Amino acid sequence: MGTVLSISPATKKASIMDAEAAAGDGVKNDKRLKRHSMFVSLSWKKLVANSAKKSAKKVSPNPAPSGLQVAQLNHENIRKTHQTDEKKPKVPIPVPVPTVPASAIQNGRLSSVQKQPSSHSLASPRRIVIQASTGELLRCLGDFMCRRCSKLKELNSGEVILWFRNIDRTLLLQGWQDQGFITPANVVFVYLLCKDALAADGTDSLAALQGTFQTCLYLAYSYMGNEISYPLKPFMIESNKDVFWETSLRIINRMSAKMLQLNADPHFFTQVFQDLKNQRESSETNLDR
Prior knowledge:
single chain, mainly alpha, Cyclin A, domain 1, 8 helices, 63% helix
């Protein structure tokens, strides 16, 4: 027996339409694929071009030196620095020079150290310590004045000290100074001036002696005092005004160098200090005789 296959017109038409639809979709997909690939190609070209431009900008014309080159450059710089330092002149290191006398005031006493050669050792000189209080040095100054002016039998050491203290007290009370001037170092300075101002044979006038002494005090206050200026009235005697200025100029011309030396040279200060201290010892020796 044979088999008969029958196809209906509707089914055949649907198959043909499906085939055409599938063909149309394939064409559309092919067009979309070509369009997408074109966009991808253009985007890739732009990306490559931009990357090439950026890499070209980042390239440095002077490449960084390697580690070996850096070490060589450092070594060369250090060598040049050493050569420059060797060419520069060497500046000597300043050494401070003492300009203050080797003296100290402790508890109102002035002490000074004097070195003398010793027979036991040539390397270490023998040290002699000189000490004196303000009162002791004032008595030494008064004894010197009495001995230098031996013609004035009525003069005593206490009167000279009283002249000094009265002037210092007057300046304090009148407000010319805030603290007293009488210290051991200043007494040594006054002695230096009086020793030069008084002649070897002294004077036979008490008023002349007081005028000369107070002139020395005025110069000492002006040179060693704490204030800028001092009045003339406590120091100057009206009847002796012309002599006051003449004596002042004479002392300044003769003693300016020694006044500076007394403050700058410790050895010279010690000599004057010892000389003043010996005035008391000489007075006691004469009394014993």
